[in-house]
Amino acid sequence: MEPVADHNTSVRCYGADTLPAILFIPGFGDDSSMFIPLADTELAYRHRLVMVDLPGFGNAAPLKVSTTLGALAGVVHDLAGKYQVRVVVAHSVASIIASLAARRSQSCIDTIISLEGNLTVDDAYYSGMAAEFDNAVDFHRSFLARLDELAKSQQIFARYRLIVAKANPVAMWELGCDARRFSATYVPGDVLAETSRVCYLYNPVNCPKASLEWLQNHPIPKLQMDGPTHWASVDQPRLVARKILEALNLLQLPDRH
Q: Domain limits at 12?
């Protein structure tokens, strides 16, 4: 399938516009390309896949205000209204953004499928690096160097490094610092759980101990995925597509409406 580009909002759409839409929000520093492999799965024949580059990342220009979780939640809220989206699939720190968007007045988002989204402060292991630096340039340079090292032993980081290199350094730094502040004040998993319907998709190997303990102690629906990296939609898209469909069924949401 060929994407239908919305250049004003840096959105890629796959699937017929008559199908119920799902909005996909990438995690820290990433862009919509992480979800493109899902366009060649069964999911794209049952749903319209709306994949966004958040401001400052991918092909999207940064915000004119600080890039915070709340500001990005406003963007997601507006996109959900524009594309008549009830269901959001959010990766990593985007799970917080989607949770905040769902809490906004008159939000049409009532369902979040979290792909290893932040549950505790320990999940902010990449975004949290930003708070260790006094400026965006030094953070971005150090983060790229770290990804270079990780890519030597894990190929998945090579792709992520290329995407992060394109990101606006100030947007990344501001978002990372805000994610650290938020996670130190609130429990992200508790905020996520306040959404009407939630399902958590995860490979336990990728999750910190504190977040696994949170999952054990909270009765939100969850589905385990064995094998994929933290970027499961990149390396195992068919598995992720099946799990998303399973999550929708678990949450008693029809494929079509």
A: 4-122+186-250
Which residue, among 95, 74, 64, 84, has the nearest Cα to 189 in the 3D structure? 95
Asked whether 226 and 26 are in contact (CB, 8 A), the reply is: no
Of 174, 77, 58, nearest to 127 by C-alpha is 174
Q: Does 190 map to a domain?
A: yes
Rounded Cα distance between 62 and 150, Å, is 27
For the segment 197-207, what is each residue's pLDDT rounded down to a tens digit?
A: 999 999 999 99
* CA count, 13 A, side-chain hemisphere, 154: 13
Integer angstrom CA distances of residue 224 from 3, 10, 36, 130, 236? 30, 31, 22, 30, 13
This prediction has a pTM of 0.94
Q: Which residues of the chain have a pLDDT value below 50?
A: 1-8, 256-257
Over residues 37-48, the pLDDT tens digits come to 999 999 999 999
Report yes or no on 173 lying in a domain: no
Give the pLDDT confidence score for residue 5 in this predicted structure: 45
We report the CATH number of the domain holding residue 241 as 3.40.50.1820
Instruction: Answer whether 256's CB lies under 8 Å from 87's CB.
Output: no
